[in-house]
Amino acid sequence: MESNVSPMNKAHAAPRCTAKSKRTGERCKGPAVKGWSVCRFHGARGGHGSGKAHPAYKHGLRTRKAEESRKLVTALQRQLRDLDSWLKSGADE
Questions:
Q1: Among 8, 10, 26, which residue's Cα sits nearest to residue 18?
Q2: What is the pLDDT of residues 18-69, one digit of tens each?
Q3: Where is this region: Disordered (predicted)?
Q4: What is the largest CA-CA distance in the chain?
Q5: Mapping DSSP to helix (H, G, I), strand (E, B) and coil, where does residue 21 land?
Q6: Phi-psi region for residue 36, left (φ > 0), alpha (ψ -120 to 50) or beta?
Q7: How far is 31 from 16, CA to CA, in rounded Å?
Q8: Which residues neighbour 57 within 8 Å (Cβ) at sequence distance 6 or greater?
């Protein structure tokens, strides 16, 4: 590496954050995190883990998998009820 080339050139050439200020309407001038469109202050790599890793996780009754299971059971119950009423109406004739 040449001694007259600044190591900060690479940092200055990094893509910029796409977040805008509510107050001024100007874009953030910070460098975006690699693989993200925003900087670390505006949400890159932020948030919590999902499932048991989330701090608000309590029991799992409202997980996506549990909700899908409940919907499947409800649909099967509805089909069974319809089939039962269809069989009863056929027996009455």
A1: 26
A2: 999 889 999 999 988 888 899 989 988 888 888 788 888 888 888 889 999 9
A3: 1-30, 44-68
A4: 98
A5: coil
A6: beta
A7: 4
A8: 51
Residue 30 neighbours by CB under 8 Å, 6+ apart: 16, 17, 39, 40, 41, 42
Which amino acid makes up residue 42?
H
Of 14, 12, 7, give the one whose Cα is nearest residue 38. 14
* Structure token digits, residue 25: 């309407």
CB neighbours of 27 closer than 8 A, spacing ≥ 6? Answer: 16, 17, 18, 19, 20, 21
Q: Which amino acid is at 80?
A: L
Q: Can you read off the two tokens belonging to residue 4?
A: 């007259």
Is pTM, for the whole model, over 0.85?
no
Rg of the Cα trace of the chain?
28
Q: Give the total residue count for the chain.
A: 93
